[in-house]
Design goal:
Elements: H1 4-13, E1 18-21, H2 28-37, E2 43-46, H3 50-64, E3 68-73, H4 74-86, E4 97-102, H5 113-128, E5 133-135, H6 140-157, E6 160-165, H7 187-197, E7 203-206, H8 210-221, E8 229-230, H9 238-248, E9 254-259, H10 260-265, H11 268-276, E10 281-287, E11 290-291, E12 297-298, H12 306-313, E13 317-321, H13 324-333, E14 341-346, H14 362-374
Parallel strand pairs: 1-2, 1-3, 3-4, 4-6, 5-6, 7-8, 7-9, 9-10, 10-14, 13-14
Antiparallel strand pairs: 11-12
Helix pairs in contact: 1-6, 3-4, 7-8, 7-13, 11-12
The chain binds thiamine diphosphate.
């Protein structure tokens, strides 16, 4: 396994000290290391999505002539395909970059359904993109060689080069930064409070990561049919799925359980929902200022006012709430006639260690959800 400090020394030796990207649980220790060292030994820009990160590293190269490192889960490679082909590619601006890609869904390793396809096609996709790649070895000497080589190819050929990171490549690194907030509720407590406050007929669309897992577990514990739509992949898309449904079934209340990281990833969705103003949408954002599901790395939500953005985009109502009591009161008072409504629920960063995963397949989930939508 690789020690994060050792890896950084190798990067530094190769003059690679600019990092940007979106976290992945595969390299959560490396992410904690980057966050701790930001501004001291290196720059680490937490981007909202992988397309953006690729463009930020391009800007870094244009300004300095140096090579930036873009980290992402392979789910994010899809988002980066556009700038990789139309910005960084040799046939366009020919930008040298190092991509660090976390390999979820590696064939032969058990993983969740949403990772299977990308896990299988990632290497062929890199080949199709004509991006040279190597797998990060698990010992220091070999890592040294791979990174020097990747940098050399990136510079000589003026193009992106990928380094694939398998699970359990890094040794544990505990962050020295304390990300714990003092809010009253955890996300899970907020989800339970919301479910207990709704009428039961609302269609719920939940976001990628632990929010969906907590919602599913609560349904099972209450002996409810898990009839929500659990957006297991496609981070940031829960609200767009909800919007698509809301337009077609205007007499049905549609509730979105979202995360701050997910909303930031697809912030334009707020503009779309605000513009078209479906009155039946209640958009709930659990703002823990982190990507809690991938290890608690910070998002930039602490400097973002979702309430103001929603109102300025055309939502009819938006409020920030901090306590269980405020959540219950706000949900009971939502006036759907005003247009799409948003509650930003400030929650603590953290989750249960024994949290399970949906036991139904996505296809089973879809069938149950569509049946549920048919009934008023
Ligand atoms: C395109 C893409 N990039 C990265 C990921 C990895 N990922 C899964 S959940 C998650 C964090 C979500 O953060 P947030 O929406 O704030 O919810 P929280 O986990 O804090 O509840 C990330 C980064 C992903 N699934 N898809």
């Amino acid at each position: 396994m690789i020690i994060c400090e050792d890896l950084f020394e190798i990067f530094k030796k190769n003059d690679l000290t600019f990092f940007t990207g979106v976290p992945d649980s595969v390299f959560k220790d490396w992410m904690s290391f980057l966050a701790d060292k930001h501004n001291k030994k290196l720059t680490n820009i937490i981007a909202c999505n992988e397309c953006e990160a690729t463009a930020i590293a391009t800007g870094y190269h244009l300004a300095t002539g140096k090579v930036g490192v873009v980290y992402m889960q392979n789910a994010g490679l899809g988002k980066a395909v556009n700038p990789l082909t139309s910005l960084c590619d040799k046939e366009v601006y020919s930008i040298p970059l190092i991509l660090m890609i976390g390999w979820r869904g590696e064939p032969g390793n058990k993983d969740e359904p949403q990772h299977k396809k990308m896990g299988r096609i990632m290497v062929p996709l890199l080949k199709t993109l004509e991006i040279p790649y190597a797998i990060m070895p698990d010992n220091k000497e070999k890592v040294d060689l791979i990174i020097s080589k990747a940098k050399q190819i990136a510079v000589e050929k003026n193009q992106p080069v990928a380094i694939i990171i398998k699970k359990e490549t890094f040794t544990k690194y505990s962050s020295r930064i304390n990300y714990k907030q003092t809010y009253e509720m955890t996300r899970e407590e907020a989800i339970k409070t919301i479910l207990d406050s709704l009428s039961g007929s609302e269609a719920i669309i939940s976001t990628t990561g632990k929010a969906s897992r907590e919602l599913f577990e609560y349904r099972i514990s209450k002996h409810h049919k898990p009839h929500d739509f659990y957006t297991v992949g496609s981070m940031g898309c829960a609200s767009s799925i909800a919007f698509g449904i809301a337009l077609q079934i205007p007499n049905r209340k549609i509730v979105i359980l979202d995360g701050d990281g997910a909303v930031l990833m697809q912030l334009g969705t707020l503009a779309t929902i605000g513009h078209y103003k479906p009155k039946n949408i209640l958009h709930l954002i659990f703002d823990n200022n982190s990507h809690e599901s991938t290890g608690g790395q910070p998002t930039v939500s602490n400097t973002v006012d979702f309430k103001k953005i929603a109102l300025a985009s055309g939502y009819g109502f938006a409020k920030i709430v901090y306590t269980k009591k405020q959540v219950i009161t706000a949900i009971n008072k939502i006036n759907y006639l005003k247009g799409p409504a948003m509650l930003v629920i400030k929650v603590k960063n953290g989750s249960r260690l024994d949290l399970g995963r949906p036991t139904k397949t996505p296809l089973e989930n879809k069938t149950v959800f569509m049946k549920f939508l048919e009934h008023d």
